[in-house]
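quick one before i forget lol
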Amino acid sequence: MATWLLISLLLVAALVTIIVVGVVLVALSSRRAQTQADNKVHAHELRVEATAQADVIRERELDAQTAQVEADRARLEAERAEARAAEAQLALEQTEAQVEEKVREADRLDPDVDHRSDSYSPGSVDAPTGGSTAVVLEPGPDEDWDGEPNAQSITPASTGSSRGVTEWGTEPNIDVDTDSGDHTQR
């Protein structure tokens, strides 16, 4: 009888173990199913949020493209401005060279200027003594200048004259009678 009792106890213990293992497996399975369901819900929520962010992404892409277009436009305008500045600088240098060449030519023609001196620099000559006034020939308001002075209208140069002329064209024009050499202010 003791063997039967021992066998019965072993069978009951085996059954209890099987039942406990079964309950644990069912609980784990249930928990896994619940976790999967929770994960599906959370995944759906993340997808909804991501879809909502897609509109923000499109807006930001549009903003980035607009900013890039503006930057390209500004870069192009800057390049054009640089080109205009370079052209203006070139025109300035050409004009300065032309003016300097005319001053040098005038200095070569003027017997009072020693243009061969080591200290010579174009246009740096003081006014001749004796009260005469040096003048710079300029075209009149309705005249075209072909590069040759026509003595029709002249403007005093900045030579320290008693009238204090400091810039070309800042004083009234002076008419010169080419036959007699008389100067009259107009």
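fyi The chain has a mean pLDDT of 76.
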